[in-house]
UniProtKB/TrEMBL annotation:
Pfam families: FlgN. This is Flagellar export chaperone FlgN. InterPro entries: FlgN-like (IPR007809), FlgN-like_sf (IPR036679). It comes from the Bacteria. Coiled coil: none annotated. It comes from Zhenpiania hominis. The lineage of its organism: Bacteria, Bacillati, Bacillota, Clostridia, Peptostreptococcales.
Amino acid sequence: MNDFENIIRELIVFFQQNQELEEKKLKAAEEKQTAVIEDCMTKEQAIVLKLRGLDKKREEIQKKLGWEGKTFRQILEIVPEEERVKYSQLFDELTHSVRMFQSANESALEIISLNLRQVQTAVKQKENKGIYNQDGGSVETEPQHLTNRKV
């Protein structure tokens, strides 16, 4: 059971450490720092792979212990009484860490989505105004007739 306790602790630390990255992404989204957001998202790809590895390791340990496919609540029902309090605290801490991570992630995604909609609206408005100069300002153009032969 020591391996199971260790993997749960690893998952807790994993989510706590990566919550910082989500908070950094949230702050960058609020401040519209695109390069920082992109950097965070690149790092998230590696995080997802590591999480998959940790989760696979947890599943293997649970299988060895005869707990394959069991939820944490179900595990609490079958562990010895003296282990129940320890595992209950670990599961609560893991749940809290996951929720904090998810909250920061969801907030960042909402702000990024809002910013994207604002950019799309601005682009759409500019598209309806015609030609633009190098500064992004629109340039008024005279309507040209098909019979106009001016060059």
